[in-house]
Design brief:
By secondary structure, the chain is of the alpha/beta class. Helix content is 45%, strand content 14%. The chain has a domain of 180 residues: Rossmann fold (3-Layer(aba) Sandwich), CATH 3.40.50.
């Protein structure tokens, strides 16, 4: 895989279609890497596609003591600048959705459309307590923490019928540098929603989530959509957090329809 020359040394995949001038850029979630987007890469065969490893994930290094969202925003901006992409369709999942929210508020002129998938929004006190407890468990780096994550992300039936996918995701989580992982996860755990920032998003936006996602609930997604101009909500039936994989057919069709309605050659 190629690596950018800029300071973040971002590892990325770029599939360029000459007749498709506005690529779809996919941003993954915490502890994962660009390979989670393989169902989308395979589906969007006629589209230009960019996937990449976030700072401290996959093959992209983390050379800072602390991380902040501006680091991730600058990473994405530097990546599309280096690839000479004037505009993109931006798709962010989980932590990637938070990064995409920040990017859209600051660099909306670079976007043709925005998909915020499985994004948190206005956690309740109880939801905050749950994720903070999870953070403490993750500090132990025990196998049970990885297993619980995967079982939150997929339905029990899917895991039973797709043991290789369980192994694949577990391997991604197990391959993380624990210190780097916790630096990113801390941002996610203690994230403070900023409605003033959301008001700056003017891009046509699709807010989507799985019907049974316990961490990024449909109630969160609906409320988030109502606080972003030019936004609509889409629900992936029977899906959990990684419904982009488990319910790929449904998610891909919804995403394709949204992107096609917001195609921009400029």
């Amino acid at each position: 895989m190629p690596i950018t020359s800029e300071k973040f040394e971002t590892d990325y995949f770029f599939k360029k279609k000459e007749n498709n001038l506005v690529p779809i850029v996919f941003v993954h979630g915490i502890g994962l890497n660009k390979d989670i987007w393989y169902p989308q890469v395979n589906f969007f065969k006629d589209y230009s596609i960019v996937t990449y490893d976030l700072i401290g994930h996959g093959k992209t290094p983390l050379n800072k003591i602390q991380l902040n969202f501006q680091d991730f925003v600058k990473q994405l901006l530097n990546l599309i600048n280096e690839l000479e992409l004037k505009k993109i369709h931006l798709v962010g999942f989980s932590l990637g959705a938070l990064i995409s929210r920040h990017f859209a508020a600051e660099h909306g002129d670079r976007l043709s459309s925005l998909n915020l998938h499985a994004s948190i929004y206005k956690r309740s006190i109880e939801q905050k307590r749950v994720v903070e407890n999870r953070f403490e468990l993750l500090k132990t780096d025990k196998p049970v923490s990885k297993d619980r994550s995967i079982r939150r992300w997929f339905t029990a039936e899917y895991i039973k019928n797709n043991p290789e996918m369980y192994k694949t995701i577990y391997s991604m989580l197990d391959g993380n540098n624990p210190e780097n992982f916790l630096k990113a996860y801390k941002l996610f755990v203690y994230y403070q929603d900023d409605d003033e920032m959301l008001k700056k998003i003017n891009t046509n936006t699709l807010v989507s989530t799985g019907q049974n996602d316990v961490g990024s609930t449909k109630e969160m997604a609906i409320n988030l959509s109502e606080n972003i101009k030019n936004s609509k909500y889409a629900e992936i039936g029977n899906g959990k957090h990684l419904c982009s994989i488990e319910c790929a057919d449904d998610y891909n069709k919804i995403l394709e329809n949204f992107i096609d309605k917001n195609y921009d050659e400029s």
